Amino acid sequence: MRIALSVSEKEKARGVESPYFQALLAAGAEESEIQLVSASDAPRTHPEDYDGILFAGGEDVDPSFYGEEKQHDSVHDHRPRDEFEFSLLNAALARRAPILGICRGVQMINVGFGGTLYQDMKEDAEPQVEHRQTDAGKSRQEATHSVLVTDTESNLGAIVQGACRVNSLHHQAVKRIGRGLKVTARSEDGFVEAVESAGEYPFLMAVQWHPEEMVNGSAEQREIFVRFVAKCRGGSAGRE
Q: Average pLDDT, whole number, for the chain?
């Protein structure tokens, strides 16, 4: 089994100390089964080599990919990463490989399916809770608001019974849902917090919060990675 962990260049430099990497280890993956990749690896990356892809957090998606111009100074995009990850996403979808998205990951996946984003939630919408908790002096690991599961038949619904408390570290959010996706959870104030494939697909889950920061203290958050790793391992065995 091989899992591609797609991250920013800064996160890649953390190596095995990356919380995403550690979360996959906690879920049963071996260190040798995880490969950190970033946009600079594009010439050397072959999507067909991976049994699953985790799209991590980081920079904003270039608004031009969803038909808009940059509207706020708070938007910090990195087009090479967008192009790299869209290519990974399309290749994974073509092979029906398991996909997990986190924070930027849910936004990138939504755009990849033709959806749009709030470029800045506080400027473009009216959030009623703090979605960037570090601005309020809270740690990345601390739960700060609740998310409500809106689809009990979803993969997330099989993990979370009703609602759960999550951390929140974003200033953008899903606006119009992409065709082929469905919303599976929302925040207390109504923003999209999780999406999955609307059709039959082995495993496609993307969440707006950062479960990798909470795996040590939450069985629910760890289970997200456990199920992803299990699907990757099962797919790998089926291709051998």
A: 95
Domain CATH number, residue 18: 3.40.50.880
Structural domain harbouring 181: 3-239
Which is catalytic among the residues 33, 59, 212, 213?
212
At residue 132, the pLDDT reads: 86
Start-end of H helices in the chain = 9-12, 19-26, 79-95, 104-112, 121-124, 155-159, 219-239
Query: Which residue has tokens 């049963």?
Result: 28
212 assigned to active site: yes
Sheet holding 204-207, edge to edge: 34-37, 3-6, 52-55, 99-102, 204-207, 192-197, 181-187, 145-149, 163-166
Q: Model confidence over 12-63: pLDDT tens digits?
A: 999 999 999 999 999 999 999 999 999 999 999 999 999 999 999 999 999 9
pLDDT: which is higher, 164 or 240: 164
Spatial distance between the Cα atoms of 91 and 109, rounded to a whole number of angstroms: 13
Residue among 59, 103, 131, 196 flagged as catalytic: 103
How many structural domains compose the chain? 1
164 is catalytic: no
Identified catalytic residue from 85, 210, 213, 232 = 210
What per-residue confidence (pLDDT) applies to 136? 80
The mean pLDDT of 193-215, rounded to a whole number, is 97
pLDDT at position 184:
98
Active site residue 131: no
